[in-house]
Amino acid sequence: MQEKIRKLLDAYVEDVKARAPIKSEAVERAFRHVQRHRLVERFFRYDQEREDYDEVWVDPAGPSTETLRTIYSDSALVTRLSRGLATSSTSQPTLVAQMVELLELAPGQRVLEIGAGTGYNAALIQEIVGETGHVTTIDIQGNVVAQTRRLLQAAGYGRIDVIAKDGALGHPENAPYDRIIATVGCPDISPNWADQLAEGGFMLIPLQHGAEGFNPLARIWKERERVLGKFVGFSGFMSIQGELATAQELSFAEQKQATAGAPLAERALPPSVGISSDLDQRERLERLCALGLFLAIADGRGSWAGIVEKARGACLFEKDKVKVYGDRLLYDELVELCARWECLGSPGLDNWGLEFFARDASEQPAEGEDAWIIRREFTIELARVQEANEVRSR
Questions:
Q1: How far is the C-alpha of 211 from the C-alpha of 309, rounded, in Å?
Q2: Among 301, 294, 299, which residue's Cα sits nearest to residue 315?
Q3: Catalytic position from the list 91, 190, 239, 303
Q4: Helix axes 25-33, 2-18, angle to 10 degrees
Q5: Judging by beta carbons within 10 Å of its beta carbon (0-12, 13-18, 19+), is residue 173 exposed, middle or buried?
Q6: What is the structure's pLDDT at 389?
Q7: Contacts with 245 (C-beta within 8 Å, 6 or more apart), sequence order
Q8: pTM for the complete prediction?
Q9: Please, which residues bridge with residue 371 across strands?
Q10: Would the pLDDT of 223 be above 90?
Q11: Could you say which DSSP state residue 388 is in?
């Protein structure tokens, strides 16, 4: 069994490396050492034909080859359901690798994770920070915490503190933290996280912009009295529960409803999108994600694939076309937004500078031709287009 696990684990790591997220030796060693199947007690496989989930239990005495191949694939696994909706999961390994790399971990660091999941992320982080470092992971779901604590203990990671509480509160008992990472979609950043951040540390937050599930990764840090940030990647997560949860203007369900049925029309991709035949698939995806980020910031209706408005429909990019659902005038509005993006130089991830203000702060930011304000529950975010070399590099 151990030889079979080792072969699967090695093939799994090579597959993740081939997709480019693993770059450092420390992260690769952690991926080769942490056995993912020991932190997955069961998962749910979606059946497209039945439009329902099948429950799969992982036999601790000897998981089947099929089960192991599923676990050691580049797949997110839903581990808990409530009324047919996922409430907990273990993230796609390539996304996990990307986020662990972005943390820039070192031995001896203290790390706070918001969203315990199965404990897989926490175990990887503990491998890197080592015996002199410490990991605290928080989840609001008591049953998730009980299972994760038990599985981490059995897998040899009993030093990790697994805490049942609202992640928005952080965990001041183990602060200050060199790194704070959230593995859930966050409609805002908690003031408690900034308070518990160590000097010179930073947060890595999937910060929702636009539609639910569109969570660009924001690296956020304190600089004297200011809270600054920049975008460093993209992600898609289920939304956080508890104090930070908010009523969604464009929930997953509303996005699905807006695109129900066949599209009313197919229109040409706006020329200002700038996707030509000489771009490979990765370049096309990066450009569309950059455009989606602009749509989410500048308009609020942005999503991974275009714009969605629950009362009117949607315009979604698909290959070289735009599929129009509902109000056909949405396409004209999309064309105007794409042209505005082009006029700003088609800003990508590296061209955005972020600053966060308390809602009741005496100094309030102002919008401009290249700057937008996003009002959140606890903070006001100023997102401004800059030259890449202007964006603070911390």
A1: 9
A2: 301
A3: 91
A4: 150
A5: exposed
A6: 62
A7: 187, 239
A8: 0.93
A9: 368, 384
A10: yes
A11: T
| Domains in the chain, CATH or no CATH each | 2-183 (3.40.50.150), 247-394 (no CATH)
Scored b (16 or more CB within 10 A) or e, 263-279 reads beeebebbebbebeeee
What does the buried/exposed string (b/e) look like for 48-75 if buried means 16 or more CB atoms within 10 Å of the residue's CB?
eeeeeeeebebeeeebeeebbebbbbbe
Query: How many other CB atoms are found less than 10 A from the CB of residue 366?
Result: 7
Distance (Å, rounded) from C-alpha 113 to C-alpha 139? 9
For 167, the token pair is 């992640």
277 is catalytic: no
**E strand or H helix at 63, and its extent?**
none
Lowest mean pLDDT among 132-146, 283-297, 334-348: 283-297
Given a cut of 90, whether residue 236 has pLDDT beyond it is: no
* pLDDT level of residue 369 (50, 70, 90 thresholds): confident
- Helix axis angle for 329-343 and 281-298, nearest 10°, is 100
Alpha-carbon span 373 to 367, nearest angstrom: 6
C-beta neighbour count of 346 within 10 angstroms: 16
- Beta bridge partners, 307, equal 302, 315
pLDDT at 85: 72
